[in-house]
Amino acid sequence: MSVLGGTYPVLDSVVLNTIQASHADFVLSEGTITINGLATPIPIKNIIKGGYQEIAYAAGTPKVVTLTVTGTPATNTLYKIRLKAYSAQGNQLSSAQQKYVLSKDYAYYTGASDTATTVGAGLAALISNDLEGFATATSSSGVMTITAADATADLIVTVVDPSQASVLVVTTGTAYVAPAGTFAIVNAINPTAVSGNTYQTYVFILKAEIPGKGLNSPGNEYIVGEVILFANSADSNFSALDTYIGTVVGGTATAAGYLGIS
User: Fold this and answer.
1) What gap in Å lies between CA 231 and CA 66, rounded to an integer?
2) pLDDT, position 222
3) Burial of 175 (0-12, 13-18, 19+ CB in 10 A)
4) What is the pLDDT of residue 237?
5) DSSP 31
6) Using CA atoms, how far apart are residues 96 and 181, in angstroms rounded to an integer?
7) Residue 254 in contact with residue 27, Cβ under 8 Å?
8) Of 33, 107, 123, 185, which residue is the least packed, with the fewest Cβ within 10 Å?
9) What mean pLDDT do residues 71-93 have?
10) Hey, is 43 helix, strand or coil?
11) CA neighbours within 13 Å on the CB side: how many for 111?
12) Which of 50, 26, 8 has its CA nearest to residue 231?
C-alpha cells in the first residue's frame, strides 16, 4: 500500500482514534520521532529528501460532466462518446489496488427526424441503462448531465471523433475530489479505525534497515517505504498535534531535538 500509487511499500501504520493532550502521541527527542502505538521510532536522518506528505480528510466528490448537443445533428451519422474512469491510486493509500482505467463507448446513430434533444436523450439512456457502467446520465433539451457512480475514480468524457467536438461539447460541471482519510480507506490499511471518524493522514517516507536474507545477503539491506499516521481530526486535541507535527517537519521544532542533545 502506498500514497504514491504503489511506489513504496508500507512499513508500518498507526491510528490515533483518541489523541492525548500536548501532542504526547508524537514526540521528537534525540533526533528521533516516537509515535504512540508505532512499533519502531523514526530517526529523522532516515527520512528521505521530500519524504513527507500530509493529506487532509475528504469525503470525496463524484465528478459531474456536462455534454451539450449543439445545433442540428447530421442525418445518418454515428455520434460516439467515450467514458473513462481513472483510479489514480486505487484506494487512496493502496498499491495492492494498482492504477486502473475502465473505458466504455456509447454511440447513437441519427435518423432524418433526430434533433439535439433526441440525440442527448438517446446517449443518456444508453449510459444509465448500462448494467456494467460506472456513471449515470440525464438529458434535457440536448444538455446531458453525466455523473460518476461514486468518488472512487475520476470520470473523463471525450468525443471519439474529433471532428464532432463542435457538435458534442464537453465541459466539467463538478470537479472530482478523491476521498482521503475515510473509514473505508483507513480500515483497509489498519483495522483499528473507528467507523464515523475522519482522519488526517501523515506519511513519512524513509530508508529502513532490514536483515539480509540467505548466504547471498549476509549483511543488512536497505529498503525505502512509508510509515503512515492516521489521526482523528475531530478529536479535541487534534489541533495541538497537527501544529506540532508541522513544526517538526518544517524544521522549527527545538534545535536540541534535532541535534540529539535533549
Assistant:
1) 37
2) 75
3) exposed
4) 98
5) T
6) 17
7) no
8) 107
9) 81
10) strand
11) 3
12) 26
Instruction: Give which of 17, 92, 90 is closest to 53, Cα–Cα.
Output: 92
Q: Where are the beta strands (DSSP E) in 130-255?
A: 135-140, 143-148, 154-159, 168-174, 199-210, 221-232
Confidence grade of residue 207 (pLDDT, cut at 50, 70, 90): confident
Q: How far apart are CA 111 and CA 129, in angstroms?
A: 21
For residue 81, give the C-alpha cell: 462518446
The total number of residues shown for the chain amounts to 262
- For the chain, what are the domain ranges? 10-57+180-253, 64-174
Residue from 169, 170, 172 nearest 70 by CA: 169
Nearest residue to 73 (alpha-carbon basis) of 112, 105, 124: 112
CA angle 174, 178, 180 (to 5 degrees): 140
Grid coordinates of 153? 475514480
Cell 508500507 appears where? 10
User: Do 208 and 222 meet the contact criterion of CB atoms below 8 Å apart?
Assistant: yes
